[in-house]
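Hi R.,

Here's the chain you asked about this morning:
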Amino acid sequence: MQMGNTDGVKFVLDRLIWFIILGVFLFFTIWAENFLTPLNMINISLHTSVLGLMVIGQAICLLSGNFDLSAEGTVALLTVLAAWLMGTVSGVGVAHTFEAGSGWGINPIFAILIIMLVGAGIGWFNGFMITRLGMNNFIVTLAMQLSLKGLSLTLSEGKNISGLPDVFRWLGTGKLGPIPIQICVTGLFIAGFHYYLKNSCFGRQLYATGGNNDAALASGFNPKKIITKAYILSGFLAAVAGWMLLGRVGESTLFLGTGFTLETVAASVIGGIALSGGYGTIVGAFAGVLLLSVVDNGLNLMQMNPNAVRGVRGLIILVALIVEAQKFRYKPKASRSKQSQAKDQVPASSR
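And here is the predicted structure, written out as tokens:
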């Protein structure tokens, strides 16, 4: 009976985020007008799309035992870079006029490929400095964020760049029937990476690296390569998120990507990713994004003061940290209980 209670508590703790989301949904369905409507559900899904992509990258880095605080700067730079590269010269016969572009008018497909490569390259450079030069991951990625934001401001000259080609905007504005393409793409990325980490060699090595770096090294693989790959994936996903966001907004602005770092770290922690590494799932991290989006949406529909909304978000993050601490404190007890019961079940003759 005691063992059943142990399993039941562990089951609830491991899936607590989904019980909370269900409760929040029920609350806003009752108290927030027009919350549970198809249009509002689409709005919530749109809000989670870009952050959903970025939280995958953040979660992968956290699982390796590292932070990636540079993703916000990556989005800021790559949205400006893409618009700047596609910029054409104003004049007769030009379909789009850009306020501040390169004048090169690069094909949108090439612009997309370039920002994907640059995003992955930024991730590789983060990984190189952390694993090869032995620098602190928090400081490196924070400095990278500041540098990338500075580069974006320099490149754009502080101006918005508008008039993006329709081909580039497809990811942000296209639809599959009534459903926006970006929702479908984010769903595929979430499902794909969840499956990949659960069933691939890289996934097992990633969890091992975050769980115990020294033990991972003793297991016969190089944790430094795993960490570098985690940052490359994070940079690549930030590039895809930047493409999606820029396509939806329609112009690069000075504020695209602002606040994404805190959002992705908070969502990952709320969703059960351990800050120490080695524990959690991509689906759980996405659930954290979903919870924050639902809370923002519901409180806005209830016309709550924006400052109060920030306070509620902070409270949710604090509660998530408390739950995380209790979960990891409880886990060894559950393990000992299972080991004890297994030992008691072994016949005395076979001991």
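One quick note: Confidence is low (pLDDT under 50) at residues 89-97, 333-351.

Cheers,
M.
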